[in-house]
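Quick start: read one record
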Amino acid sequence: MKINFKSENSNSHITPCLIVPCAESTKPANCAKELDDKLKGAISAAYKEKRFEGKANQTLLLNSLGLVKAQNVLLVGVGKEAEITGEKLRQAAGTAIKIAEKNNFKKVSLVSPNGAGSLDLKGSSNNQDPGTFYYAEGAFLSLYRFDSYKSENSEDTKIGEIIFLADKKDNLQSLKKATDKARKIADATFLARDLSNHPSNTATPTYLADTARKMSRKLGIVCKVLGEKEMKKLGMGSLLGVAKGSDEPPKLIVMEYFKGRNKRNPIAIVGKGVTFDTGGISLKPPANMDEMKMDMSGAAATIGAMQAIASLKLKVDVVGIVPATENMPGGSAIKPGDVLKSMSGKTIEVLNTDAEGRLILADALSYAVRYKPKAIIDLATLTGAVIHALGHHISAVISNNDELVSQLKQSGDATGEKIWQLPLLEEYEKAIKSGIADLKNIAGPGVGAGTITGGAFLKPFIGDYPWAHLDIAGTAWGEGKAYIPKGASGVGVRLLFDLIEKGI
């Protein structure tokens, strides 16, 4: 897709579709007012008749009838001026792009959101032009399509060019910089979405490893991939136990990006990489099992976040770790009642083979501890219980460090990838103690709180390091709206990038 930049008056700009952000009001203002004067009051009439008022994500498409150079004008609401946020700008841009595509526009021009009203955006200290950054990010993210397996897709209209219009010539450079950053972050999110959307006969553990290697070579990341032999030497019996039921060989993918001043004590990101989850011997019901190809969304977010961090050349030290395997009910698969010995030396009684994500994370977290990290953040589609608790719009976080949670919440608010903390009480930690081993991989009957006990299981493997566990089972799969597509959302990439860019 082509991206161009111009500093032109909206009245004289030639384009098939001019997209104009508008703050909520009783009459057109700023750029919309200038266009209204040329369009003989068509926009003000829409305001008067309440067909358009600038409410969040409200749209109005007008044919200019040759009265201005743009063939069509698409107004999109960003809400009340005093309440405009980065997330509202993202949603407005994404909504407008989808409307433009539905109307078969292959080229659009976006008027700078700085003309929509007074922008006092929170959490944007690292953005020179926050309004443009959020707006461009929403536009790019909404352009995602996954059609790798379609033999014909000629019916799909795709926007081939976006022109960004600066409100002033002096702002052109900052507009380009903000847009470039938004594009690179969107590309990293697209990588995560692609990995989660690919079927499991494509996105095997080996495929994840090859993708990570390819990305790492391009961006100067050191990528190491450990196979079964290396894992056995390290004593990773928990990860290898899950992998026993599959013919696909497991991989432990390690991506090292050391660009900080000290080049030590990195931030460790660990992502669950179960490329397909049948539940193992504790077999899942068949309904919707096809969606279990996305049980590696934590891994996808980790790989995507590493791409975003490296492509934007952050001066930080980060290690991304992905334990990758299938969970299959083969003849060699682990069984309920089996006991596994993890890399940490702790033994685990397996009471349910469908609670496999925490088993592979246990060894990956132990590997992360070897780096003496500044902080550890893991992401996993760990529990269905989190959907009952929080639905599909917010991820759960369980942590041993309130400051880290506070920073994650701030980044969640800034990126629209919101999180909510669940309590990690001693009672929940006691619930995963085993009678015959150190731990059991699920709590006993009557305990409930599946998301919390899942996090409680992971805590013994991180030592005293600051740690946050993100359960993204409810947010990793989207239903399709604004800039979030139907299918894989790529959640976690932008959250992690924002967190690490701002500094932990």
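Residues 198-502 form a domain with the Aminopeptidase fold (CATH 3.40.630.10).
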